[in-house]
Amino acid sequence: MESEAVMCRFHAVYHKINQALDNIPFDKLGVSIEVKEQVELMRMQLKRAKRRTDTQDMELAMDMIVIFSKKDERNADIAILERLANKLELHTIAELKAEKTAIAKLVKQRGGYNETMHQIVDLLGKFKQIAGIDETVSLDGPISTRTAQTCQSPLVPHEFVCPITLEIMTDPVIVATGQTYERDSIRKWLNSNHRTCPKTGQTLEHLSLAPNFALRNLILQWCEKNNLELPKKDNYASSVNYSAEIMEEISSLVLNLSSSQPNVRRDAIVKIRMLSKENPENRIFIANDGGIPRLVQLLSYPDSNIQEHTVTALLNLSIDETNKRLIAREGAIPAIIEILQNGTDEARENSAAALFSLSMLDENKVLVGNFNGIPPLVALLKNGTMRGKKDAATALFNLSLNQANKSRAIKAGIIPPLLHLLDDKNLGMIDEALSILLLLASHPEGRNEIGRLSFIETLVEIIRNGTPKNKECAVSVLLELGLKNSSLILAALQFGVYEPLREISISGTNRAQRKANSLLQHMSKCEHIP
């Protein structure tokens, strides 16, 4: 994409400027102290820019790992999908159409699909869903024949056309701003955790949808006059009172969370767990009815089954960003950590996933660290089920973006299980392990523990024989370590890293090429390395 090319040019420019500043002979030029200070300030800013970009690259990589996980039937955090769409600049209808066209050309050039292409098409489909576009991604034809015909037709009055699908509406509904949309389309928009009006961008004061009977009658009259048949909606009549019925049911369930009858209370938790998974309207209704404080109280209930359902309900509710703050404010984090330590396997997995979701907010990263949540996550990474290890890894990655948490993770013994993940190819978690190791390598304690010859040999082996993503991560870790300790670069050369590194600098992923070139340049500057 064009943004990637711009980023690569930026990297090349700041590297050249940094190199030039390194080679300025200040003593010979006789420059003033003020000029030296200005130059030093510029060098610091360049280094900060590099660190920010590297962190964004790592976040992007970890987000991709989470989204592409095929062994997890739980909903991916919508916040991750939205963050990915924004980083990749694929969040408007025009951008998604352009990307679809580009992918179709790429498939044609390569003579068909491979696994990577299937993943890309699947991801594009997820982006279309959060953008509120109701269509299956197909690379064999136009994006939407019906949409194109509607757009080209001068006969259809524009007020009859949904602003999202650009198709004539069959079930028009009014949102809080007064704008009208096709019910299914605006539901998909809201189900993707949006709280704004797609057309005006205004924040919606509520998420209720009111049927626009007047407009629907006008559309029916216009269709009859022009001999057109409006597509039938099977669920039109039943959908009118959907929100009111759900709100009433949720209010009753929230009250039942405090019932003195164990069966009533358990049934309410299970039902809220299910409703909170279905769509964002339900998550908001549950929170607005006071469900979160009651659920937080039930985290400490002396019944492992109740704890499991409760922590999972809170995991689902935490997909909403406002709920992330509310759950933390109600004191849920210590109780979730307790379940992470002592709960059932599924409860521990979902506790780790909940901590991952909550730690999307920086203030919650601090809270999880302060409440000693990192040691039990490390224990889950070491001894958990396959899904438990995945959940622990993603949570630990997020938490280790905080500098204090890096030290906590190292002291909790995170590095040995990460190294085990590199050795056990059957687990399929090399990228996750390397991404976390890259964060820890920026910490002095982490470098001391990671920087051993056996680990350098493992990195070289991955650089030689890993997947393109494996290689990218391994080169990044080696660069981080080598910049601080040139003897590790020498060791890597002795293990045979030079030729595969040269190959990656030419044909690796964009990020891998940047890292490989930086590593090769660093090698050429080290005096004791030929």
UniProtKB/TrEMBL annotation:
Database matches in PROSITE patterns: ARM_REPEAT, U_BOX
Pfam families: ARM_PUB, PUB10_N, U-box
InterPro entries: ARM-like (IPR011989), ARM-type_fold (IPR016024), ARM_PUB (IPR058678), Armadillo (IPR000225), PUB12-19-like_N (IPR057623), RING-Ubox_PUB (IPR045210), Ubox_domain (IPR003613), Znf_RING/FYVE/PHD (IPR013083)
GO biological process: protein ubiquitination
Origin: domain of life: Eukaryota
GO terms assigned for molecular function: ubiquitin protein ligase activity
EC category name: transferase
Functional pathway: Protein modification; protein ubiquitination
ARM repeats: 290-332, 331-373, 372-414
Record domain U-box: where: 155-229
SMART domains: ARM, Ubox
Catalytic activity: S-ubiquitinyl-[E2 ubiquitin-conjugating enzyme]-L-cysteine + [acceptor protein]-L-lysine = [E2 ubiquitin-conjugating enzyme]-L-cysteine + N(6)-ubiquitinyl-[acceptor protein]-L-lysine
UniProt-listed CDD domains: RING-Ubox_PUB
Keywords, ordered alphabetically: Repeat, Transferase, Ubl conjugation pathway
EC number: 2.3.2.27
Main function: Functions as an E3 ubiquitin ligase.
Name of the protein described by the UniProt record: RING-type E3 ubiquitin transferase
Organism: Gossypium raimondii
